[in-house]
Structures
1.
Amino acid sequence: MRKRGSIQKRVLQLIGAQAILLSTTLASADVTPNHVQDVRVRTTDAEADSAEIEVVGTEAPTFNVRVENGGKRLVVDISNSDLVGVKPAITNAVGVVGGVMTQAFKTEAGRMTRLSINLTRQAAYRVRPEGTSLKVTLTPAATTAPASARSDAEPRAGGSELVDVRYERAKTPCSTGCDRIVISTSEMPAYALSTSASGRVRLELKKTTLAKPLARTLDVSQGKGAIKSVTTFYDDKAGATVVEIDKGADGSSQGTVSVDGKDLVWSFDSALAKTGPKPAARRSVTVARENDGGAGPKVETSILGDEPKIEVSTGSEAAGFTATLNAQARGYTGRRIDLDLKDADIHNILRLLADVGRVNIVTADDVSGNVTIRMRNVPWDQALDVVLQAKGLGMVRSGNLIRVAPLATLQKERELRLAAAKQEYELTPLETRLIPVSYAQAEELQARAKDLLSPRGSIAVDERTNVLIARDISGNLNNIEELVRSLDTQTPQVLVEARIVEATSRYVRDIGIQWGGDVTFSEATGNPTGIAFPSRITSAGGNYDQQTNSRGLSPFQQNVPQPNFAVNLPAATGTGQGGALGFSLGSIDNNLNIGLRLSAAEASGLLRIVSSPRILTLDNRDARISQGTLIPFAQISAQGVQTTFQEAKLQLLVRPHVTADGSVAMHVKINRDEPDFNQTSPRGDPTILKREAETDLLVMDGHTAVIGGIFTRNTGRNLDQVPFFGDIPILGVLFQRRRASDTRNELVIFITPRIVNRAEALGR
């Protein structure tokens, strides 16, 4: 069985080794590393102290160049590369080059080779790749201006063309520049990097043409980074395309230019890359710490926002010694050990623990006794606490020095220190200090400052000048003043803007018909029936309506007194609404008359109402703004007619609270009421259309949130017809009235809070 297990273990080791070898082979197959084989330094012009450094590799180099130490050091980083038989340092001075140090190391992006070139004086450098080599030419600068950079690549015969210039900003802290200008060209041009007299950083692209749409200025100041603006133009004197950058307050001097294919990447480090994300808006500040010199509890008062928080600790760090009663409350992180001792002297055990924990232990003369102990896998510091507890001992620790003594001795020493501190405190002279309060009320801070007073201290308020008058020892007065300075800050002011958007669309269509007539068979009209009964017949429309407008039915009078409609289904037409067309057909002797009136009305409309109330208020204070009318209503009672008024107004009611991270929590209530005269009471009083939203929400400073919305749609179709006749196909339209309506209403409410005095109130 043992032999079989060893064989299985051997097989697993072989499989693991093959897997590691395979993964390494695949990883190396993805990207071929550039092996730097040699670094050469030679003189190009002895009289001018010019020098050239050639880095010989196996692949085309991808490099990054930057200037450090005020122009006295040039750093060249070659990505995805390592060293093969290269000297780590070249100390011989050649021209302007004082020495070259070469080193290879690993980064998060992979392996990298770095050349640190020390310069004897200011110099202009030119970097150009040639095949698998990288050549750096250095020429002494004529002036003491910051070192300028030039890079010569092999441009095509006709020169290069600028394709695009764009700005990029990383959202997270970065090591290679958070602000980058990416310059895309058709072919890699020769370039020169320098600083103009006005302080702007200038990058010249030699023999590079510029299209008119790219001659522009990009304003990137809203990014709040290292760059304010990027200007691209063509310089006729230099015969080159120039990219100039106006740096921000936290930008580096010249940035770093690197080559990525046919793109030049110009990187700048900003404050975000150096310091990381910004902390919270309001931090916890310790304004007072009381300690009895190692013999008493420690009291800390921390300010977070507006409420003080007092923490009291009685652990070993505060009291100055570790008693066996509170040893279990500690966290043990020491090396784990095994102990098995019988009747061992306490001094030997302490020496053993001191050796394991690599600390110095000093024991008092009255520490004695034997201990029997058996422990397995126990931290040494916990074993020390248990041993001291078993023998009634305690310890005082200062760094890696531990003093062990009986608890009674340590307690007596503590009491002596307390007595000495109390005596010293009682003899300390009192001081009186005037502490002005600017933004808060001195009476409100008085109650909170009393907690920091000693029994001998006192504090009063001068209401006229809003000043605290504190009398105590100097240390307590400093704590009180620090507390007042932490609390006496500007109250955040919040500008709350609400936007109420209403959109209403309405469509109505109404088509109707009116027609009728009369026919007479009698002797007067010359067409009697010819029979005894009925010898005369008269028929006329019986839908009489004195209210219907009948203009258009008669060419001789405006209105027919009593129109004889057989079908009376008109559309609601009138001035500004619809239209009608009337026909009148009849015989010469008026024995047959027909009147026809077609009416149709169609209306569509779009209404958009935007209401934007805004108000400025302090943190945690109610604010209200309103605008509207008072509508009178008559009420009849035993005392007679009384008039009351009902409000119809637009109102914004808000109570904001600024959180510690700079957001705004709000309780918002918005009303928009208006009278509706289309719907009235029997006495003619209008109804009131109410729109209201009330909610609690949390919004970031300057952001806009949609707190609510209502969408309604009313559609209707009506058909009025004469029974039976209206159902006849085609001819049925002569006996019908058709109405259709579609009304849509949408209400959306937006809210935007802005902290006006953010920097002063939140401490940013």
Note: The first helix runs from residue 2 to 30.
2.
Amino acid sequence: MHAYRTHTCAALTSDNVGDTVRLSGWVHRIRDHGGILFIDLRDHYGMTQVLCDPDSAAFSEVEKLRSEWCIRIDGEVKARAPELVNPKLPTGEIEVFVRGVEVLGASKELPLQVFGDQEYPEETRLKYRYLDLRREQMQANMTLRSDVVRSIRQRMWDQNFREYQTPIITASSPEGARDFLVPSRLHPGKFYALPQAPQQFKQLLMVSGFDKYFQIAPCFRDEDPRADRSPTDFYQLDMEMSFVEQQDVFDTIQPVMAGVFEEFGGGRKVDQEWPLISYKDAALWYGTDKPDLRNPIKMQDVSEHFKGSGFAIFAKLLEQEGTEIRAIPAPTGGSRKFCDRMNAFAQKEGLPGMGYIFWRDQGNGMEAAGPLAKNIGPERTEAIREQLGLGVGDAAFFLGGKPEAFERVAGRARVVIGEELGLTETDRFAFAWIVDFPMYEKDDEGRIDFSHNPFSMPQGGMEALQGDPMKVLGYQYDLACNGYELISGAIRNHKPEIMFKAFELAGYGEDEVRKRFGGMVNAFQYGAPPHGGCAAGIDRMVMLLADEANIREVILFPMNQRAEDLMMDAPSEPSNEQLRELRLRVLPPES
């Protein structure tokens, strides 16, 4: 007999009745029923009920067992009485009578319980992550993650991609976040960087003639944490293709993503039509470049109805350049109570409030109500209602000013309205490609910088870069799903002269570009093919598939909100010997 087990804790069925078996696992819970001890024995695969009565030679040892002790038992498989069969368990038709037991690993008193659904502080869960991971939901999440990665790999191979590994220690590169720097022992005073993404290497692979590349790539970014983002490292499906246009990338990655969500989505609907929405339209309609299309609400510009109107706040606002008034339709939201609730939401977001109009039935016809309706009059109110396609029992909310000042709040209001009114579907994955991103943006001091990926090809090539930089669009694209960005990518700028000009507009001279990206710039001088690709965030994909709200629920050993590993005590202070070897000195923190 095997030293530890003949079967897993999910393998025994009624076909095994009468067999002598050996199982190993953890004591999930113990129940004492009139002197007979019942133990749910758990391993990675499932659960088996074992029992021991006072007639067993092992009874005195079984009495000593406690939750989460790791044990091995020998016993005989017996059929449960028909009324005691548990249809929820694969092993629910049988139980194992214990004839012998050995403790493989005793457990101290537990800082958190594995059995049950108790909530524990995040600090406790992360410090004792190895216990937290024993819980049923965490086992399911990590198994899901592993299965998703396997499926992605197979789907990429099926499309004639090959997986290649790119370096982990490399040079610093601007990817939109801070680098993690690694000091060099052999070159004192110089530093490597952990890659924010394999961006330059995968482009160099295209120059090298590999045509189709993918990788399940670790990426490292020193970022501020969010619920949907790890503060240190994450994994992505990284891919690149040669001799392609934007649509070719879409046609390649869409069946991979759709297939994964269909396979692991638990029966939820997966949209097959993925609309292309310009960045400009996404900002107008949804207030974000990551729209949740399960929510049918589309915001609209209604500025023309308030110009010169009796509502002085909006009328005067529109006299200023670059301002507009946007409406958020709220079908079925036509009650003063709901309008007041949304007004309170706006105030919590730091705004004075939101104007609103709601339409109600007065017996002899429809009436527009609310402060705005009184100020702008029935003709303008009716024009707004018709533009928004609203009717009795509906409402609309209004925000005004420069779009960059209120757009995000408007987007959040749209989400809240959709959820509170039950308009947002919950059993669906809704995808959309966001395209036509502006290449550049201005910071608070008016300086021009890249707004997205600096290595993207500008639409129109060199000619587009001769005009106003703020009007230049890039061949850049994101895939949004249910309010999250899942993919970001671009058709790359593979021509050195266009690259130098693009960086020049962002304040980088040719010498600096050659210094920072010399490897790629030099490579592009030797017959670089047109190429493009994208990267899909695996952690975020699994988070959606697992129906979790926090990305840490699908990462084995995540950091906390302060980018600390409480289990391994990282980051930690280096020893003086390490600092001397690296020729480094640590400054005391600023008081």
Note: The chain has 16 helices and 24 strands.
3.
Amino acid sequence: MNSTVDTSASEQLHAFRSHTCGALRDNNVGETVRLSGWVHRVRDHGGVLFIDLRDHYGVTQCVCDPDSPVFSEIEKVRSEWVIRIDGVVKARDEESRNDALPTGAVEIYIRDMEVHGAANELPLPVFGEPEYPEDIRLKYRFLDLRRETLHNNIMKRAEIISSMRRRMIEEGFFEFQTPILTASSPEGARDFLVPSRMHPGQFYALPQAPQQFKQLIMMAGFDRYFQIAPCFRDEDARADRSPGEFYQLDIEMSFVTQEDVFQAVEPVLRDLFVEFADGQAVTESFPRIPYKTSMEKYGNDKPDLRNPIEMENVTEHFAGSGFKIFAGMIEKDEEVRVWAIPAPTGGSRAFCDRMNSWAQDQGQPGLGYIFFKDGAGSGPVAKNIGAERTQAIADQLNLKDGDAVFFVCGKPKSFLDFAGQARVRVGDELGLSETEGFKFCWIVDFPMFEWNEDEKRVDFSHNPFSMPQGGLEALETQDPLTINAYQYDIVCNGVELSSGAIRNHKPEIMEKAFDIAGYDRQVLEDKFGGMLRALQYGAPPHGGIAPGVDRIVMLLCGEPNIREVTMFPMNQQAQDLLMSAPSDVSAAQLRELHIRLNLPKDE
């Protein structure tokens, strides 16, 4: 519908808008303006209609009284209609000003209106952002994206990526794009395969990461590379990773040591977080924590350092003690350890019993404890090991009256995960963990190899293209399970942001490393032939890293779920409900690709 108000001012206006819905201020009072946007909400105050008009830039209050020539048309308008309005800017009364809005000092008195697009009844509301089922939100993602919080998250993501790109260029890096259609890799997660029409029976793969390409770029002599790279992995959904695809800030550098990589990447991430942290504290420098130390102190290799609790080995205080359960396990197996989880301020039986009950809910037999009061330790453990051993534990852990300590016993591999969870639980329950700020660290000295229990063989524990510490000599003379690699992770607030490594640039070391992991020369030729050939023609020492863009945005937006910072995510079943993907294809398409389906039969 289109009303006509013949004013010379409106005739001179742009077809859709003279200003955005976030632009008008006090200095615009008296002007005739034109806005276009979505009807955020409509309010009827005693016959006077108020419309909050919204576009990408903000919200402006518009007023229509019965004297307006378009009052009858405005009465028909509903939420999320797209309209154009013309009107005069007026100052709001002092009591009606809205300081929460940048445009809150003014309002527009509507004199003309045109409907650009009417909206059907909404499947989910935009105004107010109430909780709504995820399947509805994803199916109608274009509506969901109109909500203020999600809209702001996506815009913050764009600003973060723009800042990343600017900072990398300022650091002397060059942006190159790597192929999306490539070869399948035997390492890592499942590939997404793409059938080739021109080569029947053969398949491309979408890259799990640009790993080989970025190394080849270094071998081609380009020195410093980066890319905001899409990565594709056929994995199940997680809160911090979409099923299917994610983005990373992919980085590679030539003629660098591990320390050079740290010095290049650390200021980029630190300053990026300072820029977008909204005043929250950010680690000035990133501490380096060896993998083994991280596992022993925090129970995992991605510690949240906002929790000050550090676990310690207290096996010696239980060996041969009167606490027969632990003492017997220690005597029976030399690999058994007792780890202590200090609980400053947790020194009450009620709290200790609550933690013990929690442990049982996790499927554990319980959680031994000592709590300290009146200058001594209390509880069954203290009674059985005696005052001298109890005091030795208190001295080692610097515990005092009002504190407590919990114990786990066994082979560390079997209790690591539980011990790490208990540490987090204690820190949260006692209010010891900081809830704001960003604390980074580097995890370094990852094992090069690990024992594959299922296949009863040595396998790569991390990136197979990493340089082993000690080089070829270590591979030839050491037990593989004792060799560390020049591999490193960046962790922030308990979230692994990236993995990286100094690469193996010598073919003889690569061949030996793959041989130890059970891959013969033919596998190298078949799967990594391009890389192997490149190494034989003068490869520079090089290394890199790839911080995850989605996880960085999650942290900076304070969102626990990656779908809240991704424009068009899939659901947990790897389905795009908006575009109905994956979907069936026609028989003609399959014939063209020489593919016949062999679908599983319904149970």
Note: The longest strand covers residues 32-45.
4.
Amino acid sequence: MPAATALPAISVNPSFSQRLAGLDQAQKMRLAVGIVLFVVIGVVGLVMGRQAEWRVLYANLADKDGGAIVAQLTTMNVPYKIADGGGAILVPADRVYNTRLQLASQGLPKGSVTGFELMDSANRFGMTQFQERLTFQRGLEGELTRSIQALSSVQSARVHLALPNQNGFFREQQRPSASVVVGMNAGRSLDRGQLAGIVHLVSASVPEMDPKSVSVLDDTGKLLSTPPDGEVGMGGDAQQLQYVQQIEQLYSKRILDILEPVVGRQNVRAQVTAELDFSQTESTSELFKPNQTPDAIAIRSQQLMESTNAGTGAATGVPGAVTNQPPGPTAAPINGAAQTPVAANGANAAAGGGRKESIINYEVDKTVRVVRGSTGMVKRISAAVVLNHQTNTDAKGKTTTVPLTDAQLEKMTALVRETIGFNKDRGDSVNVVNAAFTSDKLKEESLAVWQQPELLDLARSFAWPVGTLLFGALVLLGAIRPALKVMAQPVPARQATASASLDAIESDQPERPLLAAPSMASNQPAEPTASDIALEDARKLTRDNPAAVANIVKTWINGEAPA
């Protein structure tokens, strides 16, 4: 029997199916679940990425306007969705503004308010004058309603006009009036300027309408406009309270603006209480001045009486034009002693035989003054200011807080007094106190970076793509990659000898000696292999060393035992 010869190392390159078959049950299950999840994540990400983001086109629409808009969107081939409850109509985010412009060009939404477009269909035959007036009034009310609804604080509005019939008698004509009911948005209100603007808008749109004839109410029935003179209502009291609050906030802001640059933004607090006088007063006075100088006097009336002696038939005096002139104004004082009037020719009344009397009435100087006191005058101001302790840092970096000195407090008090216009005679008071603030700092009124609406919208737009990518990467690295790593491990080379091959062929189970041979030839631990790998090794041995295989077959035929 020939000696046993060493066989060359056999390298095995199994296929993917063979590698997959070499995995255990847990690895196969993990790989299958990972592949399924990865495919599902990819499909969901693709669908959600292609799905359009929906935005609100219009909200809080009337049923009539909502139906008209939906019909128009169907005609325009614009996809839409109706929110739960029918409160809003949603369209894709990239088509919101374009759709609004297209609908606005067609007059949608109308807001259930019809303006002067009623006049377009009013020119029908047989319309009476009353119908024409009523159509015009409805159109004017609709236009005013649209104008009022354009305000940002107003959600809805309704205008009622009372336009009386005018006749040819001026004394019997009646002035028009109007009533406006407004519905406010949540958390919004109308200030005095906006109320005055609404009243002026309505009164200026109707001829001969007095602004006092316009009443403005809110949706709760509260009168917002100022009541007529002589009437007192809750609306006036609310306006007065709002005005007092505005004055107090103005003074508080002035104090903060002057002290914050000195002590720091979070180191000062100020509160101002203003006492205002809203009483209306009116006074009338007549003043009489004493007698004025002769050049400033005014003659009201003058009467001259002249009588002559009947027994004297001859005229007296110097003939000529001077005699026929009327006497000039007297030069005697107004309140002086009575004097005998002098004739025009300078002679006495006795000498001329006649008598003359002159009566002059002067205007009396009188001044009538009517004074009306203004409302909202400041009667008294009280200011309370609290300053925090000042912070000092030593050379070692240690921070300490120390109270302000009396000189510093005096300077701060002087600044506050000058800021509010301190008046001692009016009874104003200013108190500046120094105290240590607590460590809790007030939060900034501005929103944090992560609470900005723009950043939130951007995060929502990237939520699905980024989330899908991260989840897919987690499944890939956690389930699929470990299984692929096991499958990619190289199969160790197998070393066979002639005797080992003979034993493998002569044995009843040839797979086991062939499987054990690599572990005996190498120091590596044995790994479980499939039966097809052992069969492949036997075939490779037959191709590489046919002489050895022929000797083995010859031994089997002769019935010899292996050496």
Note: The radius of gyration is 56 Å.
